[in-house]
Amino acid sequence: MVVICPKCKVRLKIHDEKISPDGSRFCCPKCDTVLLVKRPSARRKEINKRLIMVAHSDDSFIERALNILKGEGFEVITSKDGIDAMVKSMKELPFLMIIDVALPKIYGFEVSKRIKERAETRDIKVILITSVYDQRRYKRPPSTLYGADDYIEEPDLEDLLLAKIRALTEGGRVEKETAEEHPPQPEEKAVTEKAAPHAAGVERARRLARTVLSDLYLYNPRKAAEAIADGNFREVFQVQLSEGFKLYQMRIPSEIRTQGDFFNEEIERFIERKKKETGK
User: Fold this and answer.
1) Which of 45, 73, 106, 228 is the most exposed place for a label (fewest CB within 10 A)?
2) Residues 35/25, Cβ–Cβ less than 8 Å
3) Does domain 48-176 fall into CATH 3.40.50.2300?
4) In terms of Cα–Cα distance, which of 274, 184, 190, 280 is closest to 237?
5) What are 103-146's pLDDT values in tens digits?
6) Contact between residue 95 and residue 49 where contact means Cβ atoms under 8 Å apart
7) Are 248 and 194 in contact (CB under 8 A)?
8) Where are the domains of the chain?
C-alpha cells in the first residue's frame, strides 16, 4: 500500500505483510515524522440475494428442492452435512439456507444456531426442514427453532416452500392450515424395498436415528438438556426411543442393521456432542 506523509507529502510504499493487525509505526525517510499505518478494513462481502443453499443428506430431497427453486430462477448450492454447510455459508453467503434438522456431523438445528450467532452470517435467513418420524404425535410447532426464521415439515415442501420464501423476503410467516394436515403415511416395509448399496443404506439408517433424536430435541429442548446433564437421557425418553427403534427395525433392511448398531451409535454421538457444548 502507498502512504503519504502528512508533513512533507512524500509517498511511501509499504508492504502489507509488514503491517501488524493493530497497525505499525514507520519513520518518514525525508522528515523523520513517525507514522502509524493501519491496514485498510476489509470490505464486507454482500449476501447473494439470488443464492439459496439446500443442506440435506438425502439426494431425493435435494432433487425435489432443486426442481422448485431453479424453476423460480434461484441459484442453488447444496451440502450434505453440517460442517460443509457451515463452511459454504461463510464463503458463499446465500440469502437463504434450507437445512435438514437431522444433518450428519453437526445437526441442522445446531447449524442454524451457529449461523445466527456469527456476525457475518446472522442476516442469512434459515428454514429448518423437520422430519417428524411419527406425524400422528406432533400437532404443534417445535418448541424452539434455534434461531431459524421458519420451518417446514418435509412432506409439505412442494406446497409451502415458495410461500415461505416470499414471506421471509417480504416479512411475515406462512402458517400451515390444520385442515390440510397430512394423514399418517403408511409404514414402509423393509421386505418390499430393493436393497440399497451399503454406504447409502448405512447413511439412511443413521439419518433415521438422527431424525428420531432431532424430533425429541426440537419438541422437548429443556427436558432433553436436563436429561443429558443428569446422565439419564435414555431413561427419560425410553418410550420415544423404543418407538423410534421399532420404526428403525421396520424401515431399515436387516442386511444393513447387521452391519452395525447405528441407532445406538447415533444416540451416543448426540449425547456426547451435547455434553461437550455444555462442558459437562
Assistant:
1) 73
2) yes
3) yes
4) 274
5) 999 999 899 999 999 988 999 999 999 875 555 444 455 656 78
6) yes
7) no
8) 2-37, 48-176, 192-278
Q: CA–CA separation, 249 vs 195, rounded Å?
A: 14
Span 99-115, pLDDT tens digits: 998 899 999 989 999 99
Cell (9 digits) for 107: 445437526
- HEC states along 7-53? CCCCEEECCHHHCCCCCEEEECCCCCCEEEECCCCCCCCCCEEEEEE
Contact yes or no for 14/40 (Cβ under 8 A)? no
Per-residue cell: 147: 434461531
At 203, the amino acid letter reads: E
The cell for 70 is: 431453479
Paired strand residues for 27: 34
C-alpha 65/C-alpha 54 separation (Å) is 7
Q: Where are the extended beta strands (E) located within the chain?
A: 2-4, 11-13, 24-27, 34-37, 48-55, 75-79, 94-100, 125-130, 150-153
For 249-265, b/e burial (b = at least 16 CB within 10 A) is eebbbeebbeeeebbee
In tens, the pLDDT along 206-228 reads 988 998 898 888 888 889 999 99
Place of cell 439426494: 59
The whole-angstrom separation of Cα 21 and Cα 137 is: 55
Separation between Cα atoms, residue 172 and residue 190, nearest integer Å: 42
Sign of CA dihedral 46, 50, 51, 54: positive
Instruction: For residue 40, give every residue at least 6 positions away whose Cβ sits within 8 Å of its Cβ, in sequence order, or none.
Output: 1
Contact indicator for 151, 173 with CB cutoff of 8 Å: no
